[in-house]
Amino acid sequence: MMLPPVAKRVSTVHPYLPNVPDYYHWLKDTSKSGKREDVMEYMNAEEAYAQEQFAKTSYLADTIYEEILTRIVENDQEVPYYNNNYWYYTRTVEGEQYSLYCRRFQSIDAPEQVYLNPNLFKEFSTIFVTHVSVSPSGKLLAYVMDTAGDEKYTIYFKNLETGEPLSDQITDSAQHVEWGKDDTSVYYFSQDDLLRPDKLYRHIIGQDNASDVMLVHNADEKFYGKLQKSASTRFLFAIISSQQTNETHYIDLESESLELKCFWPREHNHLYSVDHQDDFFLIVTNGGGKFLNGLLQRTRIENTDKSQWEDVLKYNPYQPINKILAFKNFAVAVERIDGIEYPRVIESLDTANETSYVVQYDGDIFQLDLAANRQDYNSDSFRIRLANQLTPWKTLEYNVKSRTIKTLKKNNGFDGSKYTLRRVFAPIPKHTRISAPFDTPVPDYIPITLLYRTDLFKSDAPNKLHLMAYGAYNSAIPPYFSPSSFSLVDRGIIAATAHIRGGSELGRGWYETAKFLNKKNSFTDLIACTDYLVSEGITRAELLAIEGGSAGGLLVGAVMNMKPDICHAVIAFVPFVDMLNTMMDPSLPVTISDYEEWGNPNEKEYFDYMLSYSPYENIKPNVKYPNIFAKTGFNDPRLGYWEPAKWVAKLRASNTNGGADDPDKSIIILHCKHGSGHAGVTGRYGIYKDRSRDIAFVISQLDASEVKLNAAKRWRKVTKTTVTTIPTDAARGRPKLNGKTFVADNGNRLRGPFDSTEWTNAAPEANYAALRNLGFNAVHLYAENFDTTLAAGNRAAQVDLAVKYAGDNGLYVILVLANGGKNGDYSLSYAEAFWKFYAARYAAQTHVLFEIQNEPVSWGPPYNSASANPPGAINLEVQAYKIIRQYAPESPILFFSYSVLGYSGNTQAILSDIQAVNTQIHGNANAKWTNEAVAFHGYGGVANTKTVISGLLSAGYPAVMTEFGTVNNAIDTSFVSTLESLGVSWLDFQGIKTNDVSTYVLTSSLYQTPVKNVGLCWPSDFGTFPCNKAA
After folding, report:
1. Phi and psi for 671 in degrees, rounded to 5?
2. Closest CA to 69 of 53, 92, 90, 100
3. What is the rounded distance in angstroms from the CA atom of residue 76 to the CA atom of residue 176?
4. CATH code for the domain of 421
5. Are 220 and 208 in contact (CB under 8 A)?
6. Range in 387-391, 437-441, 931-935, 991-995 with the lowest mean pLDDT
7. Where do the Glycoside hydrolase family domain residues begin and end (predicted)?
8. Does residue 343 lie within any of the structural domains?
9. Do 113 and 103 contact (CB within 8 A), yes or no?
10. N or C: which end of the chain has fewer CB within 10 A?
C-alpha cells in the first residue's frame, strides 16, 4: 500500500508574516510553461497516491456513472426559438460530449443545419464554448472558446452559407462577442495579463486585428467589462463592474454615428442594470445602497441623467428584484420571495404598482431561468424554464394577454414520486445577527434544502447526510436538478444544501452581512446548520460529509479549523485555502478585484481579520481533521493549484491525520488534473465521470459496506452497452510464456492492432468489440507521451476506458509509454513517475501487460552517449522494470531494445542489451526470464527482422512484435506470414480509432480483404475469422 507523500519543508518568510515561516511556499510556481521539476515530482506523487485511493472505489464510481446515465436523456433537444427567419435550438447526441448548435430556416420542418459542432474539435482535450452569436443576416457565426481551461479566450468566425471558417480570429478576448448593426462588425473586450476584460474594441470583419478601434479602456483593476445586448437588440451595453460599483456604456446600433455613450458614471457602491423598451430604458438600481434589494426605474432614451430616473415599482425591501427583461408590450421583473425566484409581469410601466402581478406555480422550491436570448421581444408571450432537485428542466410559455400558461416541454420522464424535497430552517446564532446596510431586512434563520428518498428516511434515528454550501460573491446555490444526487439518496444519504449568508438567496442584505469584516458569519452559519441538523436528530457528525468549492472551499477549510469534529468527510474543489497569501499577491488574477469581497489586506484591520480565518494559516497541530478529498487543476488561473497542495502538505505535516499511533488515521487526498481550470472538466460525460468519483468518495466515507462491495467487484462489467460482450466471469487469465512468446490463457498467440490515448480519446467500445470478429485478441495501447510539462497519469481517464473496453471484450492490452511528440524530450524521472502510476493502477488486471520503453532514445537527445543504444536507455529500462515489479510483481513485462529496430542491429547487439539488463537486475548476465520478453519493432524489414528474432529465440529469449507496418496502408501480409511462421505474438501498427489520424483497422479493404486473399489464418479466440485451423 502506498503511503501518502510527504512534502519537503523549505522555509520562506513573507515580509507581512515575519515570525511565521511558510514551509510550503516552494510549491507555488506561476510559470506559464512547465513547472519546476521538484514541484512536478511532488504533484506526481500526490496524483499517484490519489489514484491508488480512487482504485478502492473505482467499481462504485463506474456504477454511479452508469446510474447517472439512466437519469438523463442522452439524445435530447431544447425547445426551438424563432429569431430572424430561423428556428434555433441546441441538441445532444448520445456518446457526444458537447451540444450541437442547430437551426432550421423559417419552418420547424425545414432541413436541419448544424452550424456549430464542438465535438469535431478533436485537437482540443478541453473545450469551453462560452458564447455563440449569429450575425444579423444569419450568414455569419462568431463563437468564443477556451481550449485549455485557463480562461484565455479566442473568437472564431464561420461562413454559415459555405461552412468554411473565416480568416478573422481574435485572441486574448473576453468570453463574449456581439455583432454590430449588421454583418460588417463585432464588439469585444480584450483581456489584460490578469485576465481582466479591460478594453472594448470594434472589429471590422475581413480587416486585420491591428486596425480594431478601441472604444473604452478601464484601467481600474477592480473592474471587469462585459457585453450585453438589449432585449430589443437595438442597444449594445458595455458594463464595467466591480463587486460594489458599476457603470454602463451603450451604443445605439440604429444610429449613424455608433457613438459610445456613458449611461451614468460610476459612483461608489452604486450598482445598476439596464434594458430597453420602446422610448424608455428600464433600470434596476440599488440607489447607492439605499435600495439594496433593487428599485425598478425608467428614463427616456434621449436623457439618461440620473435626475431623470423615475420609479416604476414602489421599492419593496422584502422582495428583491434581481433583473428586468423588457418586451415590446410588457416587461418581466425577476423577484425573490422567500428565497425563490418568480417572474413579475408588468403590463404597463405607467400603472405597474397597481396592475403588475407575480406568476405562481405549483410547488414552493424551484429554479427559474428566463434566458433572455431565447425570448421573442415582439411576442405577447415569454418563455419560462423551471427545475428543482426533483424535476429536470421543463419549458413553459406564459401568454400575458390571456394570462394562460402552456407546457412546451416536460422533464425527461424522471420519476420523482419516491423522493421528498423540503426545507428546514436553522436559527442564526444570536451573537452573529447584524443589520444590513440601510436597515435592509434579513431573516434570522438559514434555509436548508433536503432531498431524500421517502422510504429510506429515518425519523427515529440519525441519517447519513451530504451537505453543500457556498456563501460568497452574492451568488446563490439554486435548487437545480442533479442526476448524481440520486446515487446518494438511493443509498439512504440525504442530499442537502445550506443557503448561508454571503450568498444571494435572501437578497443583497444576505450577502452584505457576510463579507469584509463580517465574513466569519458564513462560517458560523454553516456550523449552525450542522448543529441544527444534529440537534433535530436528522444526522450526526460521524454520518455527515460537507462539500464546498472555490470560495466554498475557503468555507469548509475555515469551518474545519473552527470545529474539526464537525463532520466525517470533506470535499473541497478548487478551494481558496491559501487565502491570505493569495490576497497579498496583486500579480495574481482576481486578487485586486477581490478587495471588494474580502477587504484589502494592505490595511491592517483587514489583514488581521483575514489572518484569523485563512485556512492554511490556522491549521491546528495534533488535531484529527475529517477525511479530505481536495480537487484542483493545473490551469486554474483564479485559484492556483498550489493552494490545495500547500494546504494538504501542511495538514499532513501538522500531524492532523490523527497521529502516528492512531489506528484510524484520516485520509487526505489531493487530485490535480492537467488541462483543467477553475471550472473543472469539460464535456457532459467528463463531468458525470468526474462527479461519479466525488459521489463514490462520499459514499465510501459514510457507508463502509459500499467499499467492501467495490473491493469484491472492482473491474467487473456493469455498464449498459449495445455491443456483444463476453460474460463478466470470463475475464482473461494472465498471459504466459510458451518458450517463444507470450500467449493468451488459452494458448493462442496475441494478435491485434493499436489504440492511442496520448492526445485523443480511446476508441469506442463498439470498435473494441468488433476486433473479436477479426481474429484479434489483443491491443497495443500507447497510453501517454513523454511530456515533462504534464504529470504522469494525465491521460488516466482515457487509459482506464481503453483497459476497461479491452477487458470487457476478452482482449489483452500491452500498455506502453510512447515517445512520438515533444521532440523526444525524454526524462527518466517522468518514466519512473509513469510506471509508479500505471503499474500500481493495473497490477490486479490480469489482461494487462507492460512494455518498457517504446523507443526510448530513437529520436530524442541521448543520455550522455553517442552510441546507437546509449547506456542511459538501458538504465531507464532497468529502473522502470524495478518499479513495475515493486507494484505489479505478477504482470508480464516486455523490454524494448533500440537494436531491435533492425536498422543496424543484429542478434548479438540485442543479446548485449539483455545481458546489461540482466546484470543490473539479477546480477547475472545470462539469467533466463520467466515473465518477460523482448518487444520488437519491424522497421528493418521482413528479412532482417526474421534473422534477428530467430537468433534471439535460439538464445532462449522470447519475443513479441509490438509495432510494424504503417497506419496509412493495408496490413503487411508478408510480415504477418513471417511472424506466424516464427511463432511469435504480433501487434500491427494499424489503428482502431474513428475520426482520428489512425486508419480504420475495421475497414475491409485494409485488413479483411488482404488477409483472406493470401489465405492467412490462425486459431481465433472468438468467431471464425480468419479461420479455425493452424497457420
Report:
1. -120, 115
2. 92
3. 26
4. 3.40.50.1820
5. no
6. 991-995
7. 756-986
8. no
9. yes
10. N
Alpha carbon distance 439, 429 (integer Å):
19
Nearest to 478 by CA among 576, 385, 567: 385
Q: Which residues contact 371 (CB under 8 A, 6 or more apart)?
A: 383, 385
Domain count, the chain: 2
Confidence of residue 856 (pLDDT cuts 50, 70, 90): very low
> Is 323 within 8 Å of 334 (Cβ atoms)?
yes
Is the domain of 757 the same as that of 652?
Answer: no
- The whole-angstrom separation of Cα 897 and Cα 136 is 62
Mean pLDDT computed over every residue of the chain: 89
Domain shared by 698 and 742, yes or no: no
| Same domain, yes or no: 790 and 663 | no
One domain, residues 762 and 700: no
487/624 same-domain check: yes
Contact 464, 702 (CB under 8 A): yes
What is each CA distance from 344 to 332, 397, 477, 859, 938, in whole angstroms?
A: 5, 14, 22, 68, 74
Boundaries of domain holding 455: 25-67+416-712
787 vs 649, higher pLDDT: 649
Residues 663 and 762 in one domain: no
279 is an active site residue: no
The tens digit of pLDDT for each residue in 794-844 reads: 888 889 999 999 998 899 999 998 764 333 335 667 788 888 889 989 988
Distance CA 109, CA 987 (A): 50
pLDDT of residue 86: 97
Please say if 232 is a catalytic residue: no
pLDDT of 867 higher than 90:
no
Residue 959 and residue 984: Cα distance in Å, rounded? 6
Write down the catalytic residue from 550, 666, 756, 891: 550
Q: Which residues contact 821 (CB under 8 A, 6 or more apart)?
A: 758, 759, 785, 786, 787
CA 806 → CA 73, 758, 1022, distances in Å?
A: 27, 17, 14
Contacts of 34 (CB under 8 A, 6+ apart): 40, 788, 789
How far is the C-alpha of 575 from the C-alpha of 45, rounded, in Å?
20
In a domain, 695, yes or no: yes
Same domain, 483 and 606: yes
* End residue of a domain, out of 663, 695, 712: 712
Mean pLDDT of 859-864: 32
Q: What is the mean pLDDT of residues 344-353?
A: 97
- Which of 289-293, 747-751, 827-831 has the least mean pLDDT? 827-831
Residue 218, CB-side half-sphere exposure with 13 Å CA sphere: 26
Which pLDDT belongs to residue 789? Answer: 66
- Reading the block at residue 173, the C-alpha cell is 478576448
DSSP E strands, 253-365: 260-264, 272-277, 280-285, 295-300, 310-311, 321-326, 331-337, 340-346, 357-358
> Taking a C-beta distance cutoff of 8 angstroms, is the pair 802, 763 a contact?
yes
Query: β-strands 321-326, 331-337: how paired?
Result: antiparallel
In a domain, 111, yes or no: no
Q: How far apart are the first and last CA of the chain?
A: 45
Taking only the tens place, the pLDDT of each residue in 921-980 is 888 888 889 999 998 888 778 888 888 888 889 999 999 998 888 766 788 888 899 999
Q: State the Cα–Cα distance between residues 540 and 553, nearest whole angstrom.
A: 22
- Helix (DSSP H) and strand (DSSP E) numbers for the chain: 21, 46
1005 in catalytic set: no
Same domain, 606 and 490: yes
> Does residue 299 have a pLDDT over 80?
yes
Q: Looking at the domain assignment, is residue 130 inside a domain? A: no
Per the residue annotation, which of 146, 636, 703, 1021 is the catalytic one?
636
Q: Which listed residue (176, 678, 847, 937) is catalytic?
A: 678
Assign residue 837 the CATH number of its domain. 3.20.20.80
pLDDT cut 90: percent of the chain above it? 69
